[in-house]
Each structure stands twice: as structure tokens, then as C-alpha cells.
Amino acid sequence: MSPRPPPTRVTPLAPDQAAALARDYLLLRGAVPEAWREALRAAFDAGVGTGDQWAVPRGAGWRHALVDLDLIVQRTCRLSPLLAAGAQMLGGPFFLSQVEGREPLQGGGHQPLHRDGLGRGAVAALVFLDAYGPDNGATRLVPRHLDQGAVDLGEPDEAASLITAGEAGDILVFDADLPHGATRNRSGARRRSLLLSFMPEHMREAQESCRAIRNVRMDTSEVFAP
Prior knowledge:
Layout: E1 8-9, H1 15-23, E2 26-28, H2 34-47, E3 62-65, H3 71-77, H4 80-90, E4 94-104, E5 123-128, E6 139-141, E7 162-163, E8 171-175, E9 180-182, E10 193-200, H5 204-208, H6 211-214, E11 224-225
Parallel strand pairs: 1-11
Antiparallel strand pairs: 2-8, 3-4, 4-10, 5-8, 5-10, 6-7, 6-9
């Protein structure tokens, strides 16, 4: 058996970005190179299929895409500021656990505020492939300093949520335990995104055990470290 390659070292965030992430969440404006964006949209559209392509049913009101084998998608998941954000939040070795495409359909997409991390230390990121805002299903979050249920992961306060807005190429990075949820796509304008998660290395065995359920096909063996 060949020895496992050493971890990929991650460059730290710029000080202003590190401060923003430590305070609440980080919105990386224009982080995806413009030259990649059309290829990412094409990968998303090519990955959309029928419901039976998923191991478990996906929610109504959404378009879902299998994208994790696409090379430009994988490069996007490894953009330096994105990895740096993951390294700052996790503080130790971590890996890319999953990436898939999601898009709220007209009239659909609204989610209750929820926490995906379940205390596991997961980092979530949304790579926006289209302009996004309150009219086409943008993500809303409760900033950490307003999250009254943070200590016990209790019920989040909808009144404290803020709706994000921006352009294609932005990346939103946040603690998966931060309350968040999509809004309703009232306009019907496209709002494609890549949803990805980084997990601490100690969660690898648990994540590997449910690869099939999560439709993970890509190689997740690479380890990143601060």
C-alpha cells in the first residue's frame, strides 16, 4: 500500500475576511473567476436529471444537479479563500465531504431556518452561479451575535435573519450550525448554486459510511490543513 500523501497546506485568510468570519459569516464577493462561471452553469445544467438519479428523494420546489465529478466544480471547491475559511473555522485537518447543485424553482425554495451541522463542526458554503436576492430565493441567515439559540442549538429567531444578495461568482461561507434557509423564488429568475461542505478529519469514517445515500461519487481522500 502506498503511503498517504501529506495534507494540502492552506494559506490563511486576509485579516479583514478572517475578522468577518470570526464575527458571523463570510461573503466572498466575486471569488469565482469570471472565466469559470459559464462552465459551472453548464455543469449544473448537465447534472440535472430525474428524481431517480438520487439515492433518497429530494425536496419539491427545487432543481437538483449531480456535479461532483466535474473538474471545474472541483477546482471551485478548492479556491484559496474558500479553503482558508474552512481552515479557520475547523482549526485542524479537514476534507471536502460533498458538493451538489441546487436551484429553487419559481414559487418554491422556501425553507424554515435550520442548522445542518448538528454540533459536528461542519462548514457550509454556497457558490452562487447566478445573481441572487430576496426575489429569487436567496439564502437568509441569523448572524451569530443575534442567534439566541446558539448555546443549546435551540430554535432560531426568524425575525433576526438577514437575506443575502449579490452576483454570480460570490461564495457564502458559514458555520453549518448557524441558522439559515433559502427564501421563496417569487420571480422565477434562475438562482443556481453549488452547496458544499467541509468536515473535520475525525468525521471521515461517518461520512464515508453514508456516501451512497448522499450521492457522493468524487474522491474525498484529499486532506487540507491550516
